[in-house]
C-alpha cells in the first residue's frame, strides 16, 4: 500500500463512510473512492463490505489497520513538522519548560533577553519532560528546560545551572543558627508535604530519607512543586524541593536549608540533536542559565 492508500484507509476505518473520510481528509468523495479502489486492486482483495452506503471492514482490514497504525501516526507527525517549519518565516523562538522552571526561572531570564531581542517572537509552553521529548523530536519546539536528563538518543541534555536539594519550612520554624546549617532526614519535623510517587524528585527524597534510616510520612501529597511551595508559604508544612522552586518562594514567608548530605539538582537545556539553535534561541538559553546561576549564587535557595 502507498502512503496515500494508508491515510485514506485509516480515515475510513475511523468514520465508516466515504463522505466522512472525505471530510476528515479535506478531499472529495470521488477522490476517496478512487484511492480505496486502487488500494484494494493492488492488494487483490476487498477491504470493506458495502451495505447501504456504509462500509463494514472485513477481518483482513482489521489486521491491516493494526499493522499500519504506527505508520499513520508517523505520517501525522511529519505533517505537523512540515507545517511548523513552514510557519517560521518570521523569526520565532519556541521554548517549552516544566511548570516549576517556567515560574521560578523564566520570568527574570525573559526580561533580560528581551532587551536585546525586542522584535523576536517567542512562544512559551509548559510540558512534562516526556512531552518535551516528543515536542523536540517533532520539531514543535526549539529548546526546552527540565530538571531531568531524559537520556534519549535524539535529545541533547546540557547542564546550565546546578544547585542542591533544599528543605523549605514556614518562617519561624528554625533559629538563625539552624538556618545556616544543612538538615538531614532525622531532623525533619512537623507536617511533611510530599511529592507524587511517580515524580523523579519525589523518589529521590524518599530514597534519601530511607538511606538515613527514616521512613517519611506524608499526609499531604502534591502533583507539582509550585503547590508544595505555596503550601509552605501558607504555613501548611515542610517540603523538600529543588533549589529553583525554593528560590522562587517569598523570603518573608519561608526559611530554607540545604539537604544533608548534599544532593545535586541540575537544570538542563534540552535540544534535538538534529536541530542547531538559532542565535536568538542560544542567547535565550544563555540568559536562562545566567539567571538561574545568579539566583543560586546569591544564596536565595
From TrEMBL:
Annotated HTH lysR-type domain ranges read: 1-58
Instruction: Report keywords, A-Z.
Output: DNA-binding, Transcription, Transcription regulation
Pfam families, per database record: HTH_1 (PF00126), LysR_substrate (PF03466)
The signal peptide here is none
InterPro entries according to UniProt: LysR_HTH_N, LysR_subst-bd, WH-like_DNA-bd_sf, WH_DNA-bd_sf
Which domain of life, per UniProt?
A: Bacteria
Return the similarity comment: Belongs to the LysR transcriptional regulatory family.
Matching PANTHER family: TRANSCRIPTIONAL ACTIVATOR PROTEIN LYSR (PTHR30427:SF1)
Protein name per Swiss-Prot or TrEMBL: LysR family transcriptional regulator
| Origin species | Massilia suwonensis
Amino acid at each position: 500500500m502507498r502512503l496515500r492508500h494508508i491515510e485514506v484507509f485509516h480515515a475510513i476505518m475511523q468514520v465508516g463512510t466515504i463522505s466522512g473520510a472525505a471530510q476528515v481528509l479535506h478531499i472529495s468523495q470521488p477522490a476517496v473512492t478512487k484511492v480505496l479502489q486502487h488500494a484494494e486492486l493492488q492488494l487483490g482483495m476487498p477491504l470493506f463490505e458495502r451495505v447501504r452506503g456504509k462500509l463494514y471492514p472485513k477481518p483482513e482490514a482489521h489486521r491491516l489497520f493494526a499493522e499500519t497504525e504506527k505508520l499513520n501516526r508517523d505520517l501525522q507527525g511529519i505533517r505537523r513538522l512540515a507545517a511548523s517549519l513552514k510557519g517560521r518565516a518570521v523569526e520565532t523562538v519556541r521554548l517549552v519548560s516544566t511548570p516549576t522552571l517556567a515560574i521560578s526561572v523564566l520570568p527574570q531570564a525573559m526580561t533580560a533577553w528581551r532587551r536585546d531581542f525586542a522584535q523576536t517572537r517567542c512562544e512559551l509552553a509548559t510540558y512534562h519532560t516526556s512531552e518535551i521529548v516528543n515536542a523536540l523530536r517533532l520539531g514543535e519546539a526549539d529548546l526546552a528546560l527540565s530538571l531531568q536528563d531524559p537520556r534519549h538518543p535524539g535529545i541533547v541534555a546540557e547542564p546550565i545551572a546546578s544547585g542542591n536539594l533544599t528543605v523549605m519550612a514556614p518562617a519561624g520554624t528554625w533559629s538563625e543558627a539552624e538556618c545556616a546549617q544543612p538538615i538531614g532526614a532525622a531532623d525533619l519535623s512537623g507536617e511533611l508535604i510530599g511529592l507524587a510517587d511517580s515524580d523523579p524528585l519525589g523518589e529521590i527524597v524518599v530514597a534519601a530519607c530511607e538511606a538515613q534510616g527514616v521512613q517519611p510520612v506524608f499526609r499531604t501529597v502534591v502533583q507539582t512543586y509550585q503547590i508544595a511551595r505555596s503550601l509552605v508559604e501558607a504555613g501548611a508544612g515542610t517540603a523538600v524541593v529543588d533549589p529553583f522552586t525554593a528560590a522562587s518562594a517569598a523570603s518573608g514567608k519561608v526559611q530554607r536549608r540545604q539537604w544533608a548530605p548534599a544532593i545535586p539538582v541540575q537544570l538542563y537545556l534540552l535540544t534535538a540533536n538534529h536541530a542547531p539553535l538559532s542565535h536568538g534561541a542560544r542567547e535565550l538559553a544563555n540568559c536562562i542559565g545566567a539567571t538561574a546561576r545568579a539566583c543560586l549564587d546569591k544564596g536565595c535557595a
